């Protein structure tokens, strides 16, 4: 029974990794944003559709990859915010995402049949940006 509980916990929480790469170019990439939708996380803007209605510079890219479960969605967003802070940015803009939803599975644990939900998988890229005057 303990094994089933540990397995269920791993499947529900999943494991997500984030990585940051600085943007390099001959000239700074300056963008005039047009607007969209955002979510506030720890005082930072995460733009999930469109771009901030500001003039901004791209500082780098945050890559998010891994299994997603019920317990780590907030952790993933906090990880993105941590990358924004480290880079000296103002916000992050979602530029690409691939999400495969969780799938229910049936398994035998300790002689009993259980229906469990396996974690989905996400892969996303976010631009870390700094607002300009």
List the SSEs and their pairings.
Elements: H1 2-13, E1 16-22, E2 30-32, E3 35-41, E4 44-51, E5 55-68, H2 73-87, E6 91-100, E7 103-109, E8 112-118, E9 120-131
Parallel strand pairs: 4-6
Antiparallel strand pairs: 1-5, 2-5, 3-4, 5-9, 6-9, 7-8
Structure description:
It is built from 2 helices and 9 strands; from the N terminus they run αβββββαββββ. With about 130 residues, the chain is an alpha+beta fold. The protein has one domain (about 1-130). Strand 7 (about 105-110) and strand 8 (about 110-120) form a beta hairpin. The termini are far apart. Residues about 1-15 have low confidence and may be disordered.
Helix content: 10-25%
Oligomeric grouping of the chains: single chain
Q: How many strand units?
A: 9
| Uncertain stretches of 5 or more adjacent residues | 1-13
Q: Roughly what is the average pLDDT, rounded to an integer?
A: 82
Q: Globular, elongated, flat, extended or rod-shaped: what is the shape?
A: elongated
Tell me the structural class: alpha+beta
Instruction: Figure out the total of helices.
Output: 2
List the secondary-structure elements in sequence, H or E.
HEEEEEHEEEE
Number of domains: 1
Strand content: over 45%
């Amino acid at each position: 029974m303990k094994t089933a509980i540990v397995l269920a916990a791993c499947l529900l929480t999943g494991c997500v990794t984030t990585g940051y790469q600085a943007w390099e170019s001959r000239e700074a990439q300056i963008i005039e944003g047009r607007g969209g939708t955002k979510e506030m996380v720890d005082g930072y803007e995460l733009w999930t559709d469109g771009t901030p209605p500001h003039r901004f510079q791209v500082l780098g890219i945050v890559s998010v990859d891994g299994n997603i479960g019920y317990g780590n969605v907030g952790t993933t967003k906090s990880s993105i915010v941590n990358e924004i802070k480290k880079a000296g940015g103002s916000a992050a803009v979602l530029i690409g995402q691939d999400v495969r939803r969780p799938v229910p599975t049936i398994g035998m644990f300790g002689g009993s049949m259980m229906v469990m939900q396996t974690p989905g998988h996400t892969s996303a890229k976010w631009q870390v940006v700094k607002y300009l005057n």
